[in-house]
Design brief:
Layout: H1 11-50, H2 68-84, E1 109-114, E2 119-125, E3 135-137, E4 148-153, E5 182-187, E6 190-202, E7 217-225, E8 232-240
Parallel strand pairs: 2-3, 4-7
Antiparallel strand pairs: 1-2, 1-5, 3-4, 5-6, 6-8, 7-8
Amino acid sequence: MKTQVYKKRHTKDVRKVVRFSGLFASLTGLVLGMYTFFPLISYELYIKPAFASQNFAAPIPQKTILTEDYIQSLFKNTATSLRSLGGNNAQGWMPTTYKEMEIASQLSNYFISIPKLGITNANVSTIDNNVDEHLVHFAGTNLPPNQGNAAIFGHSTLPQWFDPTDYKAIFATAHTLVVGDAINVTINNQIYTYKIVNISIVDPEQANYFEQNTDGSYLTIVTCTPPGTIWKRLLIKAKLETI
Protein backbone atom coordinates (compact mmCIF):
# COMPACT_ATOMS: atom_id res chain seq x y z
CA MET A 1 0.00 0.00 0.00
CA LYS A 2 1.37 3.34 -1.08
CA THR A 3 1.82 6.00 1.51
CA GLN A 4 0.35 9.36 0.52
CA VAL A 5 2.16 12.43 1.70
CA TYR A 6 0.32 15.69 1.97
CA LYS A 7 2.27 18.95 1.79
CA LYS A 8 0.85 22.11 3.21
CA ARG A 9 0.80 24.90 0.71
CA HIS A 10 2.49 28.12 1.65
CA THR A 11 -0.64 30.20 1.41
CA LYS A 12 1.00 33.06 3.29
CA ASP A 13 3.58 33.53 0.53
CA VAL A 14 0.87 33.55 -2.13
CA ARG A 15 -1.12 36.11 -0.18
CA LYS A 16 1.94 38.34 0.14
CA VAL A 17 2.53 38.26 -3.62
CA VAL A 18 -1.09 39.08 -4.34
CA ARG A 19 -1.12 41.84 -1.75
CA PHE A 20 2.07 43.49 -3.02
CA SER A 21 0.94 43.16 -6.64
CA GLY A 22 -2.28 44.94 -5.81
CA LEU A 23 -0.42 47.64 -3.90
CA PHE A 24 1.99 48.17 -6.81
CA ALA A 25 -0.89 48.43 -9.30
CA SER A 26 -2.68 50.93 -7.07
CA LEU A 27 0.42 53.09 -6.65
CA THR A 28 1.10 53.01 -10.39
CA GLY A 29 -2.46 54.12 -11.11
CA LEU A 30 -2.21 56.87 -8.51
CA VAL A 31 1.05 58.22 -9.95
CA LEU A 32 -0.29 58.21 -13.52
CA GLY A 33 -3.50 59.86 -12.37
CA MET A 34 -1.63 62.59 -10.52
CA TYR A 35 0.62 63.20 -13.52
CA THR A 36 -2.34 63.35 -15.87
CA PHE A 37 -4.33 65.86 -13.84
CA PHE A 38 -1.33 67.77 -12.46
CA PRO A 39 -1.62 70.58 -15.05
CA LEU A 40 -5.11 71.39 -13.77
CA ILE A 41 -3.80 71.53 -10.20
CA SER A 42 -0.75 73.53 -11.23
CA TYR A 43 -2.94 75.97 -13.14
CA GLU A 44 -5.19 76.53 -10.13
CA LEU A 45 -2.24 76.97 -7.75
CA TYR A 46 0.05 79.17 -9.84
CA ILE A 47 -1.26 80.49 -13.16
CA LYS A 48 -4.84 81.43 -12.26
CA PRO A 49 -3.94 83.52 -9.16
CA ALA A 50 -1.02 85.21 -10.94
CA PHE A 51 -3.19 86.46 -13.79
CA ALA A 52 -6.48 86.96 -11.99
CA SER A 53 -6.24 90.74 -12.34
CA GLN A 54 -4.86 90.74 -15.89
CA ASN A 55 -6.48 90.52 -19.29
CA PHE A 56 -4.83 87.22 -19.99
CA ALA A 57 -5.50 84.39 -22.42
CA ALA A 58 -5.33 81.40 -20.08
CA PRO A 59 -4.60 77.85 -21.30
CA ILE A 60 -7.44 76.34 -19.28
CA PRO A 61 -10.87 78.00 -19.03
CA GLN A 62 -11.94 79.55 -15.73
CA LYS A 63 -14.54 76.80 -15.45
CA THR A 64 -13.26 73.53 -16.86
CA ILE A 65 -15.88 70.87 -17.56
CA LEU A 66 -14.40 67.37 -17.33
CA THR A 67 -16.10 65.84 -20.34
CA GLU A 68 -15.08 62.48 -21.80
CA ASP A 69 -13.30 64.22 -24.69
CA TYR A 70 -11.43 66.53 -22.32
CA ILE A 71 -10.25 63.65 -20.14
CA GLN A 72 -9.10 61.77 -23.25
CA SER A 73 -7.11 64.85 -24.28
CA LEU A 74 -5.45 64.87 -20.86
CA PHE A 75 -4.30 61.28 -21.30
CA LYS A 76 -3.08 62.04 -24.83
CA ASN A 77 -1.06 65.01 -23.58
CA THR A 78 0.31 62.91 -20.74
CA ALA A 79 1.62 60.32 -23.19
CA THR A 80 3.21 63.06 -25.29
CA SER A 81 4.80 64.60 -22.20
CA LEU A 82 6.24 61.28 -21.05
CA ARG A 83 7.81 60.73 -24.46
CA SER A 84 9.30 64.25 -24.43
CA LEU A 85 10.82 64.28 -20.95
CA GLY A 86 14.55 64.87 -20.69
CA GLY A 87 15.04 66.82 -23.92
CA ASN A 88 17.68 69.54 -23.63
CA ASN A 89 17.90 70.58 -27.28
CA ALA A 90 15.83 73.67 -28.00
CA GLN A 91 15.26 72.49 -31.58
CA GLY A 92 13.01 69.78 -30.17
CA TRP A 93 10.76 72.36 -28.51
CA MET A 94 10.11 74.33 -31.69
CA PRO A 95 6.72 73.98 -33.40
CA THR A 96 6.85 71.69 -36.42
CA THR A 97 5.34 74.52 -38.48
CA TYR A 98 8.26 76.84 -37.73
CA LYS A 99 10.46 77.62 -40.71
CA GLU A 100 13.81 79.17 -39.93
CA MET A 101 14.50 82.43 -41.74
CA GLU A 102 17.87 83.48 -43.04
CA ILE A 103 19.00 86.07 -40.49
CA ALA A 104 22.75 86.38 -40.11
CA SER A 105 24.06 85.95 -36.57
CA GLN A 106 26.15 88.90 -35.48
CA LEU A 107 27.29 87.57 -32.11
CA SER A 108 27.63 84.26 -30.30
CA ASN A 109 25.82 85.28 -27.12
CA TYR A 110 24.32 88.10 -25.09
CA PHE A 111 22.84 88.47 -21.59
CA ILE A 112 19.45 89.25 -20.08
CA SER A 113 18.50 90.36 -16.59
CA ILE A 114 15.01 90.38 -15.06
CA PRO A 115 15.19 92.41 -11.82
CA LYS A 116 11.77 91.30 -10.54
CA LEU A 117 12.82 87.63 -10.68
CA GLY A 118 16.35 88.17 -9.38
CA ILE A 119 17.83 86.99 -12.68
CA THR A 120 21.13 88.75 -13.43
CA ASN A 121 23.13 88.41 -16.66
CA ALA A 122 21.69 85.09 -17.75
CA ASN A 123 23.64 83.86 -20.76
CA VAL A 124 21.72 83.63 -24.05
CA SER A 125 23.50 81.56 -26.70
CA THR A 126 22.91 82.13 -30.41
CA ILE A 127 25.00 79.15 -31.52
CA ASP A 128 24.20 76.30 -29.09
CA ASN A 129 20.76 74.80 -28.39
CA ASN A 130 21.48 73.14 -25.03
CA VAL A 131 18.88 74.73 -22.74
CA ASP A 132 20.30 72.91 -19.71
CA GLU A 133 23.46 75.02 -19.94
CA HIS A 134 22.10 78.46 -20.90
CA LEU A 135 19.16 80.25 -22.48
CA VAL A 136 18.75 79.78 -26.21
CA HIS A 137 18.14 82.42 -28.87
CA PHE A 138 15.95 80.83 -31.54
CA ALA A 139 17.78 80.73 -34.85
CA GLY A 140 15.98 82.75 -37.50
CA THR A 141 14.69 85.43 -35.13
CA ASN A 142 16.36 88.81 -35.11
CA LEU A 143 18.94 89.87 -32.54
CA PRO A 144 18.34 92.68 -30.06
CA PRO A 145 18.35 95.65 -30.25
CA ASN A 146 17.61 95.35 -33.98
CA GLN A 147 14.12 95.84 -35.32
CA GLY A 148 12.20 92.58 -35.19
CA ASN A 149 11.55 89.98 -32.52
CA ALA A 150 14.17 87.99 -30.60
CA ALA A 151 12.74 84.71 -29.29
CA ILE A 152 14.48 83.35 -26.19
CA PHE A 153 13.77 79.92 -24.74
CA GLY A 154 14.50 78.70 -21.22
CA HIS A 155 13.40 75.95 -18.84
CA SER A 156 10.66 76.20 -16.26
CA THR A 157 9.73 73.97 -13.33
CA LEU A 158 7.76 74.20 -10.08
CA PRO A 159 8.12 77.65 -8.46
CA GLN A 160 9.50 76.19 -5.22
CA TRP A 161 12.49 74.91 -7.21
CA PHE A 162 13.29 78.29 -8.74
CA ASP A 163 16.98 79.14 -8.92
CA PRO A 164 18.06 82.21 -10.95
CA THR A 165 21.47 80.62 -11.56
CA ASP A 166 20.19 77.19 -12.63
CA TYR A 167 19.17 77.12 -16.28
CA LYS A 168 16.99 74.07 -15.65
CA ALA A 169 14.78 76.15 -13.35
CA ILE A 170 15.49 79.76 -14.33
CA PHE A 171 11.96 80.64 -15.51
CA ALA A 172 10.07 78.77 -12.76
CA THR A 173 8.55 82.05 -11.51
CA ALA A 174 8.10 83.72 -14.90
CA HIS A 175 4.33 83.52 -14.44
CA THR A 176 4.60 86.24 -11.76
CA LEU A 177 5.75 88.86 -14.29
CA VAL A 178 3.24 91.51 -15.35
CA VAL A 179 2.93 94.05 -18.13
CA GLY A 180 5.33 96.91 -17.45
CA ASP A 181 8.07 94.84 -15.80
CA ALA A 182 11.58 95.34 -17.17
CA ILE A 183 13.89 92.97 -19.02
CA ASN A 184 17.42 94.26 -19.54
CA VAL A 185 19.56 93.04 -22.42
CA THR A 186 23.34 93.46 -22.34
CA ILE A 187 25.26 93.37 -25.62
CA ASN A 188 28.91 94.43 -25.83
CA ASN A 189 28.63 96.11 -22.40
CA GLN A 190 25.66 98.19 -23.60
CA ILE A 191 22.40 97.75 -21.67
CA TYR A 192 19.04 97.95 -23.45
CA THR A 193 15.83 98.07 -21.42
CA TYR A 194 12.72 96.30 -22.66
CA LYS A 195 9.30 96.62 -21.01
CA ILE A 196 6.79 93.78 -21.05
CA VAL A 197 3.82 94.64 -23.27
CA ASN A 198 1.98 91.33 -23.55
CA ILE A 199 1.72 87.96 -21.80
CA SER A 200 -0.09 84.98 -23.29
CA ILE A 201 -0.25 81.19 -23.30
CA VAL A 202 -0.42 79.15 -26.50
CA ASP A 203 -0.29 75.55 -27.65
CA PRO A 204 3.19 74.16 -28.42
CA GLU A 205 2.46 74.00 -32.15
CA GLN A 206 1.64 77.70 -32.47
CA ALA A 207 4.56 79.57 -34.03
CA ASN A 208 3.25 83.14 -34.03
CA TYR A 209 5.86 84.20 -31.48
CA PHE A 210 8.51 83.82 -34.19
CA GLU A 211 6.92 86.54 -36.30
CA GLN A 212 9.20 89.51 -36.93
CA ASN A 213 7.67 92.86 -35.97
CA THR A 214 8.44 95.90 -38.11
CA ASP A 215 7.35 98.63 -35.70
CA GLY A 216 10.20 98.29 -33.21
CA SER A 217 12.58 95.98 -31.36
CA TYR A 218 10.91 93.18 -29.38
CA LEU A 219 11.97 90.11 -27.47
CA THR A 220 9.79 87.19 -26.48
CA ILE A 221 10.63 84.84 -23.63
CA VAL A 222 9.28 81.34 -24.27
CA THR A 223 8.96 78.73 -21.52
CA CYS A 224 6.74 75.82 -20.57
CA THR A 225 3.55 76.12 -18.54
CA PRO A 226 1.68 75.28 -16.30
CA PRO A 227 4.65 75.04 -13.92
CA GLY A 228 6.09 71.55 -13.83
CA THR A 229 4.64 70.54 -17.22
CA ILE A 230 5.52 70.93 -20.89
CA TRP A 231 1.93 71.12 -22.14
CA LYS A 232 1.68 74.80 -23.10
CA ARG A 233 3.99 77.72 -23.86
CA LEU A 234 4.10 80.88 -21.76
CA LEU A 235 5.01 83.86 -23.95
CA ILE A 236 6.30 87.06 -22.38
CA LYS A 237 6.72 89.76 -25.01
CA ALA A 238 8.63 92.98 -24.31
CA LYS A 239 9.41 96.07 -26.38
CA LEU A 240 12.59 98.14 -26.38
CA GLU A 241 12.21 101.52 -24.75
CA THR A 242 13.36 104.53 -26.74
CA ILE A 243 17.15 104.71 -26.62
